[in-house]
Design brief:
Oligomer: single chain
Bound molecules: pyridoxal-5'-phosphate, lysine
Strand content: 15-25%
Number of strands: 21
């Protein structure tokens, strides 16, 4: 397993993250457990911020909180001076409760509800990224009722298909997101938005997909957005002070994944903006981006305990852990690949090829196929790397399995930032109708 950030094998032959022995974390918090290398999260934040600073352009790096949104994470993002992108009232609530400055929050989504819009306007968030014509009118009306003017970016689909899994690619024309550039919707949307008195149009937003390893898609998106901005200026006189190019920067999950250093992505984007706007005599806009996965992905490791094994001679050996698709649905959803190691026997040679099964009642609940490991025993601790993004965030209670806790580790210290769910959390919202026999249980 590739060791990211501060992860290393210590003198005891154990995996250590943030200066804390994984076996110690397991003893203290149990498994499954999400462990975040806080130093690596902060390093990634700084790589983005520093690279933008070096460009000389004005910028905002908005962490896409959908990747992993808990209050402690919002605190880190705030401390690192970044902005925050939310896509639901739940994410917004989390950020506000964590004391995140509202003016640095951007609200996304293709179906924001009236309640969500009201909540966000009341909180005085920094900007709405408007997705469609219905939202334009709704937002204008609600802002009017509240006698407020709200800042908006319009999300456009630039027609760029990034090389990524079909379900996580969003910039192409046939997408549920945004105003299409090719068919004229984007221009109509700008004109309509400009005519609505409670909206202040800052510019446009484009997001071409996720887990992207090349700069080409970003370059083309920047070029298309610039072309559109120039056209808008020609037809309406409107000049965009802000361009948002979304997120999507890839990370290394397994061998063969070849992400570029953050600075290379940022330089490609800022150069493309300078070139395409500057060459058209367009005032250089402020550049916003929304990295999610690339901020937290490789900083996360999930620790599991091996519970059972099943050897089918000549076919396969299954090793079952005490989590699975409930804490990491990505293999089942996207055939996502992961690397893993035995955290308690980190120096031992590989001796067998096994497949890691989850504990859900579902054949598709497999975490990793054909993994080389030392001879696995019941009770071993399996560490799966790169689980920081879209794992806790997409975890479920399928089979009424309790979601694991989350720990941040840094400089030899561990802090619980999300408690493991309790049985009370599991049945906390259940109600037994009065017409049914009531039970009294001691909880
Ligand atoms: C609009 C938008 N911004 C940002 C992101 C974050 O993407 P990533 O986690 O790939 O950086 C996403 C998700 O793909 C998104 O849909
Ligand atoms: N959930 C996806 C990424 C979605 C990106 C959000 N627009 C993943 O785990 O890879």
């Amino acid at each position: 397993m590739y060791l990211h950030g501060t992860s290393k094998v210590n003198d005891q032959g154990h995996l250590e993250i943030g200066g804390v022995d994984a076996t110690q974390l397991v003893a203290e918090y149990g498994t499954p457990l999400y462990v975040f290398d806080e130093a690596l999260v902060r390093q990634r934040c700084r790589e983005f911020v520093d690279a933008f600073r070096a460009s000389g352009l004005k910028f905002q790096v908005a962490y896409a909180s959908k990747a992993f949104c808990v209050m402690a994470m919002c605190r880190i993002v705030e401390e690192e001076g970044m902005s925050l992108d939310v896509v639901s009232d739940g994410e917004l609530y989390t950020a506000l409760q964590a004391g995140f400055p509202a003016e640095r929050i951007h609200f996304h989504g293709n179906n924001k509800t009236v309640d969500e819009i009201e909540m966000a306007i009341d909180a005085q968030i920094g900007c709405f990224v408007v997705d469609n014509f219905i939202e334009l009118q709704l937002l204008n009306a609600i802002a009017g009722d509240k006698r407020q003017k709200v800042k908006v970016l319009l999300r456009i689909t630039p027609g760029v298909e990034a090389h990524t899994h079909e379900f996580i690619s969003t910039g192409q024309t046939d997408s549920k997101f945004g105003f299409d550039l090719g068919n004229g919707s984007a221009m109509r949307a700008i004109k309509e938005a400009a005519s609505l008195s409670n909206l202040d149009v800052l510019g446009v937003h484009s997001h071409i997909g996720s887990q992207i390893f090349e700069v080409e898609g970003f370059r083309i998106a920047a070029e298309k957005v610039a072309g559109f901005a120039v056209q808008v200026r020609k037809e309406t006189g409107i000049i965009f002070p802000v361009i948002n190019l979304g997120g999507g920067f890839g990370i290394r999950y397994v061998e063969g994944h070849t992400p570029l250093p953050v600075a290379v992505y940022v330089e490609a984007i800022t150069e493309a903006i300078k070139e395409n706007f500057g060459n058209n005599d367009y005032p250089l806009p402020e550049i916003w981006v929304e990295p999610g996965r690339s901020i937290v992905g490789d900083a996360g490791t999930t620790l599991y305990t091996v519970g059972t094994t099943k050897d089918i001679p000549g076919v396969r050996k299954y090793v079952a852990v005490d989590g699975g698709m409930t804490d990491n649905p990505r293999p089942a959803l996207y055939e996502a690949e992961y690397e893993a190691m035995l955290a308690n026997r980190a120096t031992e040679q590989s001796e067998e090829v096994v497949s890691i099964a989850g504990k859900c009642c579902e054949s598709g609940d497999m975490l990793i196929w054909d993994l080389n490991l030392p001879k696995v025993s019941v009770g071993d601790i399996l560490a799966v790397s790169c689980t920081g993004a879209y794992n806790y965030a997409m975890a479920s209670n399928y089979n009424r399995i309790r979601r694991p806790g989350v720990v941040f580790v840094k400089d030899g210290q561990s802090d619980l930032v999300v408690k493991r769910e309790s049985f009370d959390n599991i049945i906390g919202n259940d109600l037994i109708p009065a017409r049914m026999k009531q039970v009294s249980t001691t909880r």
